[in-house]
Sequence to fold (229 residues):
Amino acid sequence: MSKPAVILLSGGLDSATTAAIARAEGFELAALSFDYGQRHRGELDASRRVAESLGVRRHVTLNIDLRQFGSSALTSAIDVPKGRTRAEMETGIPITYVPARNTVFLSFALGYAEVLGAADIFIGVNAVDYSGYPDCRPEYIAAFERMANLATKASVEGRLRFRIHTPLVQLTKAEIIRRGTKLGVDYSLTRSCYDPDPSGAGCGNCDACLLRLKGFAEAGLTDPAPYRK
Fold:
């Protein structure tokens, strides 16, 4: 019998690949997505498409309005940075950082996993080709995992030992794409742009688009996602 696991599924390239890896490892997936007031709401439709294509057992989308806090270009009327160089992306934490987002998301995933009796949680964080987010680093994930095993009834009673899986954390974007391609991920279903047009087409110039396009180019493939001309 397959073991249950919770997968944080944004609808982007990384989370889709992570879900495919978890499925290949024999886990039965329950996906969790978030409508948090993000300007790139097309990712929610993408998450549904990806979940269906990967045969996810159950897909829950939670509403959390992080626009109430603001302070991020993804949840406020702040311009999304465009055309940044790799050096600029590696310097400082960008305005697209959403305060404590992965902590919020993982906390909900932990609660969901405890209810399902799932010891395993998958998240597609990456510490190589990323935009400087502090909650994508291995030391953060390790700290959250320690907390998870201190703060839950299931762990205190010895019924579950929670593990946060980050299979992409040390991979380049090109390596992620190659891995997902071998696992049959349909990347045309995914969306990554921080500032898409109303049809969902990517801008091609924000950090997320630039890293994605660079990854496909280095993998020797063409990105099948739509982009504005």
In short: The helical segments are 13-24, 42-53, 86-89, 101-116, 138-151, 153-156, 173-182, 207-218. The beta strands are 3-8, 27-35, 58-63, 120-122, 163-165. The chain has a mean pLDDT of 95. The CA atoms of residues 153 and 226 lie 45 Å apart.
